[in-house]
Design goal:
Strand order of the largest sheet: 1-2
Shape: flat
Strand content: under 5%
Distance between the termini: 46 Å
Largest sheet: 2 strands, antiparallel
Helix content: 55-70%
Radius of gyration: 19 Å
Length: 172
């Protein structure tokens, strides 16, 4: 039972830990919890940024190639700081909620209502994190010129081929 509870907790918490921190490595608790996580299927695969959005770290690591201006760079740094500051409390609350869920699931007899309420809290906090990071990527894109956006699209790694979709059943 304990293994099942641990797996459930990991599955529930995975979205909050899937991507790098917007402030870069070494910022915030745990391994990554940044833009794009669980936001759907983007060109970078499951959990990658949605099509047409760019992780801030991609922009920062290509600032010379993109020709970022000093004003754009300063704005980007301000966005990153503001997002980090606004999500830090949510990250701390998320860790507490995950721990609460884990303790609930570790019981010999699980209080179903308490476990589901704890899971709801975890998922609500994950949603808040995702919205914050989606907003960040939208603001980052809005800082860039159309030419810079085009360059970033060209820099994306090639998308792996998708398996063919089965044909739709014939209409009756």
């Amino acid at each position: 039972m304990k293994k099942i509870a641990m797996m459930l907790c990991l599955v529930v918490a995975t979205a909050a830990w899937a991507a790098p921190d917007p402030a870069g490595p070494g910022h915030g608790p745990g391994p990554g919890h940044g833009p794009g996580q669980g936001l759907g299927r983007g060109p970078d695969g499951p959990g990658g940024p949605p099509h047409g959005l760019y992780p801030p770290e991609m922009v920062l690591s290509n600032q010379l190639a993109l020709g970022l201006t000093d004003d754009q760079l300063q704005s980007l740094k301000s966005l990153l700081k503001a997002t980090h500051d606004s999500t830090l409390d949510t990250q701390v609350a998320l860790q507490r909620a995950i721990e609460t869920l884990q303790r609930t699931l570790d019981s010999t007899r699980i209080d179903e209502a308490a476990a589901l309420a704890a899971a709801d809290q975890v998922m609500a906090l994950e949603t808040a994190m995702k919205k914050g990071h989606l907003g960040l990527m939208i603001r980052v894109k809005n800082l860039l010129t159309p030419d810079q956006q085009k360059k970033l699209e060209e820099m994306r790694p090639p998308q792996p081929p998708q398996p063919p979709q089965p044909p739709a059943p014939p209409a009756r």
